[in-house]
Design a protein that fits this description.
With 317 residues, the protein is an alpha+beta fold. The chain has helices at residues 11-27, 59-73, 83-86, 104-108, 121-126, 133-138, 154-168, 172-181, 209-212, 214-220, 233-239, 299-316; strands spanning 33-37, 42-47, 54-55, 206-207, 224-225, 228-229, 261-262, 269-273, 277-282, 287-292. Helix 2 runs parallel beside helix 7. The protein is globular and about 60 Å long.
């Protein structure tokens, strides 16, 4: 991607951004902050509440996927690595054959075969799976053939994250700090952990808008950050490309990569967290669009359509 490094080249985009900001203000849309960036810098940004780190929920998944891509490049894992090989001590005596078929690829594409949304935020808050998420998931029934069916589940992400921890010999926070956070000057973020102290790969990182969207800039740059290689170009293409169909397809569920959602614009994809913590990469336009929203707002029915109709569509028209 050839990046344009002068704001003047993006004046049209900035005008569209300003129009969207006016809409947020006039309609009192529940938005905390919004920004657009190229591969090097933020070119327009507006905050409607104090600028601070906040829970980015499942946007976390895309950061962990990137770390897994780095580990694969380094030979620590492969997409065909089996879950049971990472944790043989957790295999129950009456294990299904299908449990042994689950691979890292299946976990990254939300197609483990458990076919249930396990360890989502409300479940974790109520204590489901505690105190040992691995033991809990190894006791769940594999309902469909691994790889056959998409079913969005934070447990798939958590299992993938635990495979990375096992392969790297360290906790996720330590690995991501060394490989990603420190290189992107993001510091050491607050990160929700499970009852045993393992960072939740499916969510719970706290970041400011500017830090959150840096991952999109890395992907826009084919895996680099200000000239420094973060993750391979090959992984960027794989993770951000459609790897599996999503059911009940609409403009928001139009395919899934490796912990990234496909978006309804040419070549576009996004890291997507609950309540509207979203970074959308628009490769054709050389832009990243990011938004953060409060838990109290109805993002899917109010803000998401507005974002689509009044900013993303005009930018990609």
């Amino acid at each position: 991607i050839k990046l344009i490094d002068t704001v003047g080249d993006f004046m049209g985009a900035i005008d569209m951004f300003n129009d969207f900001v006016k809409l947020i203000e006039s309609e009192s849309l529940p938005v905390e902050a919004v920004a657009i960036a190229d591969g090097d810098a933020i070119i327009a940004e507006r905050h409607f509440v104090p600028d601070q780190d906040r829970n980015i929920y499942s946007h976390t998944k895309s950061y962990v996927s990137t770390a897994i891509g780095i580990a694969i490049e380094d030979g620590l894992l492969s997409l065909d690595s089996r879950l049971v090989d990472s944790f043989p001590e957790y295999i129950p005596s009456d294990a299904q054959l299908e449990l042994g078929q689950i691979t890292l690829r299946h976990l990254l594409t939300m197609s483990s075969g458990f076919n249930h949304a396990y360890l989502m935020n409300p479940d974790r808050r109520s204590g489901v799976g505690a105190p040992d998420y691995l033991r809990y998931m190894f006791s769940r029934r594999v309902e469909v053939e691994p790889g056959s069916t998409f079913c969005y589940s934070s447990a798939d992400s958590d299992l993938a994250g635990r495979m990375l921890e096992q392969a790297a010999g360290m906790r996720l926070g330590e690995y991501l700090y060394g490989m990603i956070f420190s290189k992107l000057d993001q510091g050491w973020p607050v990160w929700e952990c499970d009852p045993q102290g393992h960072p939740i790969a499916g969510g719970g990182i706290y970041m400011s808008l500017a830090n959150m969207l840096k991952l999109g800039q890395v992907y826009l740059n084919d895996g680099t950050w200000h000239g420094t290689r973060i993750v391979s170009e090959s992984w960027v293409k794989q993770a951000s490309g459609k790897q599996i169909d999503t059911p009940h397809s609409n403009i928001w569920t139009c395919g899934y990569g490796y912990q990234f959602w496909m978006s309804p614009y040419e070549g576009a994809y996004r890291a997507d967290g609950a309540y509207g913590q979203i970074t959308t990469v628009l490769p054709k336009q050389g832009l990243v669009v990011a938004i953060q929203c409060p838990e109290s707002g109805d993002f899917d029915n109010i803000v998401r359509p507005a974002l689509h109709e009044h900013l993303l569509l005009p930018l990609t028209a």
